[in-house]
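note to self — DONT lose this again. spent like an hour looking for the file last time. sequence + predicted structure for the chain T wanted, 146 res
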Amino acid sequence: MLSSILSQESCLSEIKDRTFALSKLSNIVDELLPSLLKQQCRVANYRQGVLVLEVSSASWLTRLKYEQSNLISEIRKNILPSLSSIQYKINPNISTKLSQCHCQASKLSLLSSVMTPKSAMFLYALAENAPDKLKKQLIKLANHAK
């Protein structure tokens, strides 16, 4: 039964091939787009000569349309000579996932910005010979050590 599922004629094999082709197409589109723009869009599908791209918002869609002619010609040259046009769909979930990633990254950076006891010790040592105004600030800062 397992061999029939994995055979060349099975539906699973067709899905695997289609997924691989879309992944390859997505990688090429990512290479062609500017870094900020590729974070705001993704390849959704390709059917009957039409590439379907999802974009996070209408403003990013406008920016993406400026890249359309270059994108079509490069995709035709690199992978899909049969590409006739690009269709766009707005999907706000793309920006939601991106903002969640940024939120997690900022939490991680916040955790890594905690002052160590060793750093606090250095600040106390600096404060000993500092002028009064700077001394107060250094001690205040050193008191934030965890």
